[in-house]
Amino acid sequence: IYTMAEEVVLHPGDLIKLKRDCKDGTWKVEVNGKRMKLFVAPLPENYNAGKGEPSQSKRNSLSKKSSMTHIWKQITSNFDALPESNARSHPKQRKKNRQSSRREKLKPGQTIPQNMLRSLSKEVDRCKEDTQELKLEMRLLIKAYQQEYNIAFEQLPDSLKIFVEPTMEERYFERMLDAPFSQIGPPVVIKTVDENPMPKNDATKQLLLLKSAELGSLCNKGTIPFKTILSPVYNLNAVSQDHLDDLFTRNFDVFTVKLNHDFEYFVMLVMHMFHRLNLLETFKIPEVYLYRFLVVMGRKYRDVPFHNYYHSFNVTQTMFYFLTTCQAEKVLTPIEMLSMLLAAIGHDADHPGLNNNFQEKANTRCAVLHKRSILENHHLLTTRYVLTLPECNIFCNLQEEEVEQIFYYVRHLILATDLSLHGVILKKMEEKAKYVHKQWKQESPQLDPESKLRVMCILMKCSDLSNEIRPRDISQRWAKLIISEFLAQSKKEMELQMEVTPWMDGRKIIISKEQINFINGLCIPLYNCLASIFPVISECIEEMHTNLDHWHNHLNLWGNENTPANLADKSLWLENQQKVKKGVSLDDTLKENATK
């Protein structure tokens, strides 16, 4: 093709598009994606490139032959002699060929070719995926509309109800989780704690007022932000590299990051943990589903002093630190590491800020529903409920057996955070510590299911009790938060005229001594056991002893000369411990504590 502006030499396989401009009569030419607005004509046979241009009369004669049909014939004439493998047919022709092959009728008795069945199956799968995505977007849109304008399900038109009508599984969980901390009867234990009790009429009036709310919680529950998860907007590249590096250490400071960043920044940090462990690629988790799951789980946490979303993030980050530092992939499979992260994220979901003992005394719905490990079973139900929501279904590409295995591990790991099971788990792990360590040192370790469960449970417990392995300033802030939650519970017990938990009574509690007992009684034995399996954990124990020395100095500085001698050396956290049953596996023990 000779043009007025440049010379284009065609080769077999070049993609050419020609379109006539109605205004000026020129052709719009696109060769291999490069667009030109040029005068087009077949190249003269006697024309030599670079040896001068044809005269104006020659151009006029050439333009007579520049009709679309003539040009196309000139272009395609040279392709006839080419081998079929090198020739490139016109896009329209290829489309016709595909259509004709699809429309080819089968003769009677002839079977459908396998390649046709495979292509049809893929097409059906794509249609199903597109339909599901449209239904999900419609569901979120209607949910956001209901939430924004406070519209009940009954007020929606029938044509919209089909998109947001809950499944049987959703209804089951919603019924189980409805007002879990409301009182369904009078408190079990009533005791006057003040010398001058409130007048009877005023006390009755206050109790009636409190009964209308959730007595077993310090604040209201969170709501799912449908407007936020409808069209997620996030940028994982916005996360600071320093914060990403700190995820692999014990020095991550939640409080400093919280000052400069919002809730969704922490969501993106958790997403980076999933990416670093290759969990999204391994289980084909859609990133947008993971984002929605993390946002909804985060909003399920209440704004209580200690057991809030940032404690959950702290535990999740510690779990990530253990999995990467201890080379846990040598003894744990990807599905087990995924289960551990999920359990860490949801281990305190919807925590009311008031412990199991309070739920029993207040006679809440949650205490009646779960006879053992009351709050732990509630956290498990909340996590399971979020995972059943279509918009949070991160298991969409997993097999049913894999999902059941994940739920099995998540249940056991969340129940393992119950401190009444502390002694049982520690004893079971000490029995297998040498065996597990020996397996861990091998290139291809083979752990039996019971030993693997014990390792996972002790990692979960150490992550939950990880405040004492952090630098002193961070550890102190977490200690003050848990004490403030204790004081809030004792105040609530006084309001309801219940018996005040002794180690939460602000008139009796000594923070330094309780921290000393907590570290000596719970944390050090637990981390010593973990260090016997993974020696790298020894540095955590060193940091713990540094914090322990600080609390000893604090006690000696502020306590009077008689205070240390009069205080018990046993942590009150170790009260009401379940007994270790001989011949009973840890798996069976945790199953007994799960709500049937």
Molecular structure report:
The chain is an all-alpha fold. Helices cover 56% and strands 3% of the residues. The chain has helices at residues 56-64, 68-77, 91-102, 114-149, 158-164, 168-176, 200-211, 226-230, 241-246, 254-260, 263-276, 279-283, 287-299, 309-325, 334-346, 356-362, 365-369, 374-388, 400-415, 422-441, 449-464, 472-495, 511-533, 538-558, 563-566, 586-593, and strands at 16-20, 27-31, 34-38. A three-stranded antiparallel beta sheet has the order 1-2-3, with no helix packed on it. A hairpin with a 2-residue loop joins strand 2 and strand 3. It starts with 15 loop residues before the first strand and ends with a helix. Mean pLDDT is 81; it is low at 1-5, 39-52, 64-68, 78-88 and 189-212.
Average pLDDT works out at 81
Spatial sequence of strands, sheet with the most strands: 1-2-3
Envelope shape:
globular
Poorly predicted ranges: 1-5, 39-52, 64-68, 78-88, 189-212
Assembly level: single chain
The whole-angstrom Rg is: 35 Å
- The total count of helices amounts to 26
Q: Please identify the structural class as seen in this structure.
A: mainly alpha
Strand residues, percent = under 5%
Would you count the extended β strands for me?
A: 3
